[in-house]
Design brief:
Protein name (chain B): SAM-dependent methyltransferase
CATH class of chain B: Alpha Beta
Number of domains of chain A: 3
Largest sheet of chain B: 8 strands, mixed
Order of helices and strands of chain B: HHHEHEHEHHEHEHHEEE
Structural class of chain B: alpha/beta
Pfam families (chain A): EAL, GGDEF
Strand content of chain B: 15-25%
Oligomer: heterodimer
Largest sheet of chain A: 8 strands, mixed, barrel
Protein name (chain A): GGDEF-domain containing protein
Number of helices of chain A: 22
InterPro entries (chain B): SAM-dependent_MTases_sf (IPR029063), SAM_dep_MeTrfase_SAV2177_type (IPR006764)
Radius of gyration of chain B: 18 Å
Distance between the termini of chain B: 54 Å
CATH topology of the largest domain in chain A: TIM Barrel
Shape of chain A: rod-shaped
CATH architecture of chain B: 3-Layer(aba) Sandwich
CATH topology of chain B: Rossmann fold
InterPro entries (chain A): Biofilm_reg_signaling (IPR052155), EAL_dom (IPR001633), EAL_sf (IPR035919), GGDEF_dom (IPR000160), Nucleotide_cyclase (IPR029787), Rev_trsase/Diguanyl_cyclase (IPR043128)
Shape of chain B: globular
CATH superfamily of the largest domain in chain A: EAL domain
Chain lengths: 581, 269
């Protein structure tokens, strides 16, 4: 606090009383001594105003304003000031003036007026300043909120590993591209990209390296694809959205660029990694397209590229898709068709080349499809094998063949055995032995009249269980034949371990017997096979015999039996049986 | 969309703020209707509330004045509230204009207001932080820029610790601050206390405080003295704030009515 020149160095009694009166009315940012010194100066002003002619109101105003400026700024502060001046000023200072009461009233009025004006201004200023602060704080909070929402939105729509847009954002953009008004005539495309054998990287080098590789690939794709949206859908799946294409050529060029970007060797944490990708391309008109169908098509197309060996693109083909859908529908219908009895068996004769007798028949399954007519096994067995339905279907074939074959012995003559194909999955199933045993018991078919045909590939696996099962079955007396011998790996080692009774030689060797030059080689192979088989105590049946000439040469080689159109086409059991009676 | 926890609060002036209530007790008009209503309710329950605030503010003034005279030129005022009258930088810079002051408050309006008051003052600034995050305060770039922690600093924790519950471990918060300070630094601390009161009085007081939006965590003289762990308490130790080096003997009368206790400690060399 500055002290005006001429102020008394020691505050008088009045100033001290005044200071005491206003203490505690509001916070005063000064020492008691500073307060007293200030009030001492104001006391002098008041005294002089009271005595000076003419009476000057402005002195009172000034004192009121100075009090407020010194933070003696409250209703109580004013009240006590008025009280102490009224009661003590004249007395304590021993002032003598004319009409002092009248002047005192006017002075107090002036002090109160000056004080109230200053307090009002101060209050308004403070209110304004706190409101401004609140507004600014609110603006800042809102800005921070918007920033955090933007950040949150970014997090929700981007993949943290690669920083690429994620499935959510991709789906939004694709949907928007398809639904944008007036775009119906334009074309849209996606490249669905998946790294080939990425799992091997994770499994051998660890997920950390795998993640780094994904980030590298992501960055390359983002750069290579320019303005087109590149998103990571998850795992090693990426997708490129082309919102406007001129046709499939555009998309193919883009896919080539993407494949090249992935193909470049990547240096990841000291490992030089060479990886390739497969891409499914779908390109179509915006009108009539929807995101779900489009992505499903892209997914199927990607699988075509994968199953063709990877490191390539495939273009969506509606007809191929249709065929696959039909195949899928067909396989899905197998269980119901079994229940409705839509399957039946035809049998093809296996004829002795020695005496022309019927030694056996091969059971061949047929599907009397209510819409598609009679279907041959090649149109549904492959599917059934892929989906695992072969176990159910194969089980039915085996049971039906046993049931029918048992009836053939009623004729009295030496009845033929029935040969049934077993799929890989059936042989590898734990319950095979019990299943066959139960069937033989239920139908009463003698075990030696059942032949199970397995392919070479069935024995490719090193599992011991199937071999043991086949051995148990062979010990029961069931015949075991190797089907299509000579077309697989023809690994002779298993002939040593397996209880095989017969080799069925693939039709392609027999077909060769027609032409002379190639025929001679095939004939030599066949002759060797026969002599090998006989040396191992196995019989040999030739498949696909179509002419009398072929039959004659097979007989000359020493082949035991034959099967093919020359000896009889597949037919229902009663027609085959009628022939032998 | 669920909002993540780092999303900021919005500003709601309908909610009373302890910083603006304090301004009201000091006789200021930097407050809104909700603050005044809450402050008046508090005064109805605890008639001494304005006296408490004023006594505490006077303690702050005397403490800063003393430290400035003792040569301290850096101040970190945590829980500074609304800069009304008699702010740390006004007191300190009156003695030496080169004194540097950093205010810290959690209330965004108080911070915005402080920023306006401090505009143009290169030696003082304000940051929005919480006493309960001392690491964040110490690491704040503005704190780092203005204060040189290799030199003594006076850390002011004045009339704020009673908003920090024991669960927030006030002793650990202060230790974190202390460990960042150079020898010769000071801690100025004050807060509401129930020292010397009977169990009944204490229970009565706690009931009153629980009714307000910000319950107070009153602490005894012994508890407050323990918070100066590592500091050398200046005379007269932890006392009712009017008793801490009063300007005049009379101003220390009826000191316990001020409810606040406080003290100043020096970090030894």
């Amino acid at each position: 606090m500055t002290e005006s020149p001429g102020a008394t160095p020691h505050p008088g009694t009045f100033a001290r009383a005044w200071a005491k009166a206003v203490s505690g009315t509001s916070y005063l940012p000064m020492t008691q001594a500073q307060l007293e010194s200030l009030l001492d100066r104001l006391t002098a002003e008041l005294a002089s105003a009271l005595l000076t002619e003419p009476f000057d109101l402005r002195a009172g105003h000034r004192v009121g304003a100075e009090l407020v400026a010194a933070h003696i700024a409250s209703a109580e502060g004013l009240g006590r000031t008025v009280e102490v001046i009224q009661l003590r000023l004249v007395r304590d200072l021993g002032l003598v003036a004319e009409e002092v009461e009248d002047r005192m009233a006017r002075l107090l009025a002036a002090v109160a007026t000056g004080y109230a004006r200053a307090l009002r201004d101060r209050t308004l200023d403070e209110q304004e300043s706190i409101r401004r602060a609140a507004m600014r704080a609110r603006t800042q909070a809102e800005r921070a909120l918007r920033a955090s929402e933007a950040r949150f939105r970014h997090q929700a729509t981007h993949d943290p590993l690669t920083g690429l847009p994620n499935r959510t954002l991709f789906t939004e953009r694709l949907t928007a591209a398809l639904n944008e008004p007036g775009r119906g005539a334009q074309r849209v495309g996606v490249c669905f990209l998946d790294l080939d054998r990425f799992k091997v990287v994770n499994d051998t080098l660890g997920h950390q390296i795998g993640d780094l590789l994904l980030a590298t690939v992501a960055e390359r794709l983002r750069k290579a694809m320019g303005e087109h949206l590149v998103a990571r859908l998850g795992g090693d799946e990426f997708v490129i959205l082309v919102e406007q294409t001129a046709g499939t050529d555009d998309m193919v060029a883009l896919a080539e660029t993407a494949l090249a970007a992935v193909r470049t060797p990547a240096l990841v944490d000291g490992h030089e990694l060479q990886i390739s990708a497969s891409i499914g391309i779908v390109e179509r008109q915006v009108a009539g397209a929807n995101p779900t169908d489009l992505m499903r098509a892209a997914d199927s197309t990607l699988h075509w590229a994968k199953s063709a060996g990877g490191a390539r693109w495939a273009l969506y083909d509606a007809e191929r898709n249709q065929r696959e859908l039909a195949r899928y529908a067909l396989s899905a219908a197998i269980p119901a068709a079994l229940e409705r009895g839509e399957f039946y068996l035809d049998y093809q004769p296996l004829t002795s080349l020695r005496d022309g007798s019927l030694v056996g028949v091969e059971a061949l399954v047929r599907w009397r499809h209510p819409e598609l007519g009679v279907l041959r096994p090649d149109s549904f067995i492959g599917l059934a094998e892929e989906t695992g339905l072969i176990v159910q279907l194969g089980g039915w074939v085996l049971a039906e063949a046993c049931r029918e074959a048992e009836a053939w012995s009623a004729g009295g003559a030496a009845a033929p055995f029935v040969s049934v194909n077993l799929a890989v999955r059936q042989v590898h199933r734990p319950g095979l032995v019990q299943e066959v045993r139960a069937l033989l018991r239920q139908t009463g078919l003698p075990p030696e009249r059942l032949q199970l045909e397995i392919t070479e590939s069935t024995m490719m696996s090193t599992a011991e269980e199937p071999v043991r099962a086949l051995r148990v079955l062979a010990d029961l007396g069931v015949r075991i034949a190797i089907d299509d011998f000579g077309t697989g790996y023809s690994n002779l080692a298993y002939l040593r371990d397996l209880p095989v009774t017969e080799l069925k030689v693939a039709g392609e060797f027999v077909a060769g017997l027609r032409s002379s030059s190639v025929g001679r080689t095939d004939e030599r192979i066949l002759a060797s096979l026969v002599s090998l088989a006989h040396a191992l105590d196995l019989t040999v049946t030739a498949e696909g015999v179509e002419t009398a000439g072929q039959a004659e040469r097979l007989r000359a080689i020493g082949c035991d039996a034959a099967q093919g159109w020359h000896f009889g086409r597949p037919a229902p059991a009663d027609r085959i049986m009628a022939r032998i009676r | 969309m669920q909002r993540p926890d780092w999303a900021p609060d919005t500003i709601d002036i309908e909610r009373p703020s302890v910083a603006r209530m304090y301004d009201y007790y000091l006789g200021g008009s930097h407050n809104f209707a909700a603050d005044r209503a809450a402050a008046q309710a508090m005064v109805a329950a605890v008639p001494e509330a304005p006296l408490m605030a004023q006594a505490n503010r006077a303690f702050l003034r005397r403490a800063v004045h003393h430290l400035a005279e003792a040569g301290i030129r850096q101040f970190l005022d945590i829980g500074s509230g609304i800069p009304t009258v008699g702010n740390v930088h006004e007191i300190a810079q009156q003695l030496d204009p080169r004194s540097r002051v950093v205010y810290v408050d959690v209330d965004p309006v108080a911070v915005a207001h402080s920023r306006e008051i401090l505009a143009g003052n290169e030696q003082a600034t304000v940051v929005q932080e919480d006493l309960r995050h001392p690491e964040a305060i110490l690491a704040h770039p503005d704190v780092r820029e203005l204060l040189d922690l290799s030199q003594p600093v006076a850390v002011m924790v004045v009339a704020v610790l009673h908003f920090v519950s024991d669960d927030d471990r006030p002793a650990e918060l202060l230790r974190t601050l202390r460990d960042a300070l150079a020898p010769g630094s000071y801690l100025v601390l004050s807060q509401a206390s129930d020292d010397g009161r009977s169990e009944d009085e204490r229970a009565e007081a706690e009931r009153v405080y629980q009714r307000t939006d910000n319950p107070l965590w009153v602490r005894s003289r012994a508890e407050l003295t323990a918070l100066f762990d590592g500091f050398e308490l200046l005379d007269p130790g932890v006392v009712w704030v009017p008793q801490w080096r009063p300007d005049t003997p009379e101003s220390a009368e009826d000191a316990e009515r001020a409810v606040f206790m406080g003290g100043v400690g020096r970090l030894g060399d």
